[in-house]
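Minutes, project check-in
Item: structure for the 321-residue chain
Input as provided by the requester:
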Amino acid sequence: MSVSQVAAAIQTQSKYERLIARAAQLQPPRTIVVHPCDETSLRGASEAARAGLILPVLVGPERKIHEVAREHKIDIDSFEIVEASHSDGSAAQAVELIRSAKGELLMKGSLHTDELMRAVTSSSNGLRTKRRISHVFVMDVPTYAETLFITDAAINILPDLDVKRDIVQNAIDLFTQVGLGTPRVAILSAVETVTSKIPSTIDAAALCKMADRGQITGGLLDGPLAFDNAIDPQAAKIKGIDSPVAGRAQILVVPDLEAGNMLAKNLSFLARADAAGIVLGARVPIILTSRSDSVRTRMASCAVAALYADARRRAPVLPAA
């Protein structure tokens, strides 16, 4: 293995670790953990707290939470617990704590994602802002030198152009505010030329023009780009695409949820990538973890959210809807 290959391997192995190490140096954000009533979610919050990434407040049935902690030998003695009788009640109570400025982050526990998001997106007492809510996978792909963001693969099913604008801006804001620099943003489609037969190519071209006109800020956009010429320099060269983004993308914006979900899972299961998850566009960032996540992935999700929360302390937050 050459020196450059060794260096690339070290860089790849340390993508998440660098984020975790930086977040551990900050004041841990007060994090409302919603219904942590199984081992996975309770241990995830405990381990993140022990690493100095978050300060958990557990919301849920106190008796059940203590039973899980005793059964699995998880130390929660120092954590505040806010009583809620069931998962829907936990979600509502957690959102109310955020609305009352008693937390900087939300973290999903053992309830279903749609239960949590129903409370978050409530028009009367949720956490909506003027920005559309969207999800970002922060992926550590062993075969790719960059930390790779994929959006949106979990919230918006068939986003129109206006929603895609917010999806792109949310991802750019996250990338820049966690200290990763100015992102190279690839707007993906099946091909790299604009054609009326593939509507996502038209949206991609429009998003790039919106960036030119200041409607999207903070990133370098190019699109439409097919997946290969977005992430592989040689593929981009063969197609004659000359741009600062092609072949070196850091944010991949997918046409719809189906495409994004399949892309993220392909990378996870075929390339053995880790996929940390965070929801943006609400009043606070929301940490979404899966029961199948590794400890490292859970830590990375908390680290990214903690870095973002720290940046938000020093900048205006999005206005409420």
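Outcome recorded: The chain has a mean pLDDT of 92.
No further action items on this chain.
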